[in-house]
Design a protein that fits this description.
The chain has 128 residues and is mainly alpha-helical. The chain has a domain of 81 residues. It is built from 4 helices and no strands. The relative contact order is 0.10.
Length: 128
């Protein structure tokens, strides 16, 4: 068995172990607060796609919240505007930043795959 196949198998086994751990502890209060991140978040199959989804949903959410705030602002209730706007926009900013990070992560992974493919092609050409 090649080294890369061993690495892939060990990564898959590690992922399965993390999923099993998550299933055992998903309802334990505070288990994932101490730095344990659920594997569904850390091992996304397509981080670039998920990142674009989060970025687009953050933009759409910001537009919807902006329209809602405009309607509330016309009623001249400044306190309710602040109570609604600040937490929602903070959440939207977090989603946007997370989406950008996932897009960058996906780009780095695709660059690494392309680089490995190019090395294999060059080695194949050199052998011929």
């Amino acid at each position: 068995m090649k080294k890369s196949q061993k690495d892939d198998k060990s990564k898959k086994d590690d992922y399965i172990e993390k999923i099993q751990e998550w299933q055992e502890h998903q309802y334990d209060p505070g288990y994932y607060i101490g730095g344990n991140i659920p594997p569904v978040i850390t091992h996304t199959g397509r981080p670039k796609l998920l990142g674009w989804f989060w970025v687009i949903s953050a933009i759409v959410s910001a537009i919807i919240v902006g329209v809602m705030l405009k309607a509330v602002y016309e009623a001249e209730e400044i306190v309710s505007i602040l109570i609604i706007a600040v937490p929602l926009y903070v959440l939207i900013i977090f989603y946007f930043i997370a989406g950008i990070r996932l897009i960058k992560k996906g780009a780095a992974e695709s660059y690494t795959r392309a680089k490995m493919f190019l090395i294999k092609v060059c080695c194949g050409i050199a052998v011929v």
